[in-house]
Amino acid sequence: MCVSFAEPAIMAHYKTEQEDWLIIYLKYLLFLFNFFFWVGGAAVMAVGVWTLVEKSGYLSVLASSTFAASAYILIFAGALVVVTGFLGFGAIIREQKSCLSTYFCLLLVIFLVELVAGVLAHVYYQRLSDELKQHLNRTLTENYGQPRAMEITASVDRLQQDFKCCGSNSSADWQHSTYILSQEAEGRRVPDSCCKTVVTHCGQRVHPSNIYKVEGGCITKLEQFLADHLLLMGAVGIGVACLQICGMILTCCLHRRLQRHFY
Fold first, then answer.
1. Sorted alphabetically, which CDD domains does this protein's record hold (predicted)?
2. Residue 221, exposed/middle/buried by CB under 10 A (0-12, 13-18, 19+)?
3. In angstroms, rounded to a whole number, what is the distance separating the alpha carbons of residues 206 and 25?
4. How far apart are the C-alpha atoms of 261 and 263, rounded to whole Å?
5. Which position has the higher pLDDT, 244 or 150?
6. Mean pLDDT across 109-123
């Protein structure tokens, strides 16, 4: 009789210990996930900031603001991830179900934000080539060197120097430029930024030894640059999104175990 009474107590004790170990195991897993998630968030934010700060000079030559919008969304998502990561550490250590619920909701919000950024990047990637072909040549011929378009002028100059190119498709594109046909050009046949060594009025001489002659012009170079950046933003976003799915599953498991354990 004593044995039969003791058996349920032993089984209950064993089950409680098992539950305790499962909670500890889930806590460590979620803690490890949260660390990688926090690092991933910092990486997402860094990529977005780097894109805007380091490469913002090219943004004014683009027809739409989709590229910049994707970068801003990544920065916002990255900052939210960093803040959420700190909340996650607190929720895991304290084992508070309300904090875990908030943590789960924030993970879901970040996931949706990154999904929007990914869709924008994909849509922009699909129409990138057409936009550049239509807009860049018009920018060079109509807006370059104009008093009210100084930002565009600076962007084009930087673009040609950074990518070592001249003109939209070739240096011949500058023949139809409003700036080159005006008196302000002072005899230049291309802007000075087309020159391999930039000095005043160097654009008067269009020999290949003096200016950049690149097959495909600046369009090819800029298209490749933007495509690489969009792929980088997409890869970082997808990586963090996959982590988030794992995090949401672990958070739900820990929340359920804590509910069973305390009630």
1. CD151_like_LEL
2. middle
3. 70
4. 6
5. 150
6. 75
pTM (2 decimals)? Answer: 0.65
Buried b (16+ CB within 10 A) or exposed e, 123-157: ebbeebeebbeebbbebbbebbbeeebeebbebbb
Side-chain-facing half-sphere of 197: CA atoms under 13 Å:
2
CA distance 20 to 14: 10
Amino acid at 19: E
